[in-house]
Amino acid sequence: MALTVLAIVFALLLILGVPVVFAIGLSSVAAFVASSGGLDMLVPNLNTMFNTMIGDSGMNKLAFLAIPFFIFAGELMIYGGMADKIVNFAKAAVGHVRGGLGMSNVVACTLFGGISGSAVADVSAMGSVLIPIMKKEGYDADYAVNVTTHAALVGVLTPTSLNIILFTLAAGGKVSILDMIYAGIIPAILLTACNLAAAYLVARKRGYPRGEWPGWAIVARSFAAALPGLMVIVIILFCITAGICTATESASIAVVWALFLSAVVYRSLTVEQFIAACAKAAKTTGTVLTLIGISAVFGYLLAINEVPTMAGEWMSHISTNPFVIFFLVNIILFVLGTFLDMAPTILICTPIFMPICAKFGMDPVQFGIVMLLNCALGLNTPPVGTTQFVGCAIGEISVGQVMKTILPFYGSLTATMMLITYIPALSMWLPNLVRSFAVG
Amino acid sequence: MYTRLCATLSKLSLQLAAIGLMLILLCMLYMVIGRYVFNDMPAWAERLALLLTLYVTLLSTAVSVRDAGHIGLESFLVLAPDWLRLKLEYVIHGLLIVFGALMLYFGTTLAISYWGETIPTLEWAPDGLRRIPVALCGGLMILFSIEHIIALVKGTEVEPSWH
Asked: Where are the transmembrane segments (chain B) (predicted)?
């Protein structure tokens, strides 16, 4: 009964347009009302609900603090002018091949995604620089938007990705942050290669021009200018891998590094921009951590009603072939990802689908990467395609026009996802290697 | 007058949240410095950071209610005809008031009932302090949702007060 009420009320509230966080909260309240049978039980149940929300299993966990710091570091990098330096390097390095600006866009978005850890921030920062330039140079707006929005998705797999932290938390301590960070590296490289291939093939087909080779000196100089910003990734990886500090502490060091770079080295961060970055980081923190807190209540309700077990049994009835099960999970995650944003999809679906995939032999770390890629695909798919909406707004083009020519880029993302799903080594080799060194 | 009150409360809340975020950052850096420089792992810094996180998170959550910053599935709302969309928006803000009222009530009663206990490693801090932000967020959500309803009636929009 409680489960039915939870599902129906949640779906109704979502359709109604209630923000996801409050849809989860209100449907949880409705489920408690349905299961309590009277005020005597309802009041303690709602006390439990709000205590869970702010408790150790909700938003009050030290590991969660990496999220605001990653957001904060990303904001400081954006305000600090890192975007221009990365664009200059990307243009110098790959701007000379056919469709050079498209290729530069892919490289720049990938590198900036590694720093900001957010696909949406990546599209906003890189897109606002590169999309207008591409249009001015004669590239079609749909191509410019598709290249940017797909390249930006690499950000969800890179070390500063807050979604990696979210997944490890949703996995309930079964996955380490370090494993996830390393597991994302090869898929990120693979996705970048696929994005470059798609951008190149479309550029050839449409006859976009080649840029001029600027010479190694310019490439080296632009790389040197971008390098301090890119060091954020190295700092985080080094601090965690060497055991110097936790993911949360390394994220706080990344903030200090970003602040030092923007304010002292590049001298591009004003006091007003710093305050704006603080405010924006605080706001995003509120949105994400409250969602985590409320989702803990939702997860608690799903667990006591044995939803993960029921879902597993249901899928076992359909097939016992792991290939079919993984394909089904991909389809379900993709469909949910098109309607929900990344954070709620990760928080709601991980406790349900991770045990199912584990039962059929998929490592939780590999599942995490598959989950992130599915959510990334959802970010570029209507009706709730956040990065696509931002890209279209910058490119001044409708979502419909962009969707007409999305296939090569979508194909590259889907191909990457299938490879990651069915070849475990792509996501598991690097974390296993690092672990073997640590043990040795 | 009411809009100005809400704008002031929203701005103050976000400013406090931003300051709180900086304090959390200082706590984390102090933990690293304490461990490597002073050879001391200050447990209070971790607890203080967690306490501050609740205030930063829930104050910002309330501000995002005012600034329409929460993630939602708006596509269906956008597709609805104007007359229906307006009615649905009243319902949404009404539901937010209900949830805000629950947060205000349960946050207050929980804060009172936990006031006698202290937060481990922060002996000066009553455990009830961890529940106050829930009540604060609930109260602010009610005020901001009412502001949105008034704006809908007047046919105006609620503008973010700060950033």
From this structure: 12-33, 48-69, 90-112, 132-153
CB contact under 8 A, A22 and B70: yes
- Asked if A62's CB is within 8 angstroms of B49's CB, the reply is yes
Q: What are phi and psi of A98, to 5 degrees?
A: -60, 135
Q: Does A218 touch chain B (CB under 8 A)?
A: no
Per-residue pLDDT at A64 exceeds 80: no
Write the ipTM: 0.94
Residue A126 in tokens = 């890189």
pTM to 2 decimal places: 0.84
Instruction: Give residue for tokens 């479309």.
Output: A202
Is the per-residue pLDDT at A273 higher than 80? yes
Whether residue B99 contacts residue B65, with contact meaning beta carbons closer than 8 Å, is answered with: no
More confident: A312 or B84: B84
Measure CB to CB from residue B21 to each of A22, A248, A281 and give the nearest one.
A281
In chain B, what residues touch A64 (CB-CB under 8 Å)?
53
The per-residue pLDDT for A108 is 86
- Whether the CB-CB separation of A365 and A180 falls below 8 Å is answered with yes
Q: How confident is the model at residue A383 (pLDDT cuts 50, 70, 90)?
A: low
A400 in helix, strand or coil?
helix
Q: Which of A17, A54, A291 sits opposite B76 (nearest CB)?
A: A17
Q: Which of A274, A278, A346, A348 to mutate to test the interface with B (most CBs of B within 10 A)?
A: A278
Tokens describing residue A51: 């205590």
pLDDT of res. A427? 94
Kindly report the CA angle at B146 between B140 and B148, in degrees rounded to 5?
Answer: 105
Q: Does B146 touch chain A (CB under 8 A)?
A: no
**pLDDT tens profile B12-39:** 999 999 999 999 999 999 988 888 888 8
DSSP 3-state assignment of B118? strand
Q: Quote the CA–CA distance of A21 and B89 in Å, as a whole number.
A: 16
A15 touches chain B (CB under 8 A): yes
**Residues in chain B closer than 8 A to A245 (CB atoms):** 32
- Distance, CA of A149 to CA of A113 (rounded, Å): 11
Tell me the shortest Cα–Cα distance from B57 to chain A, in angstroms.
Answer: 4
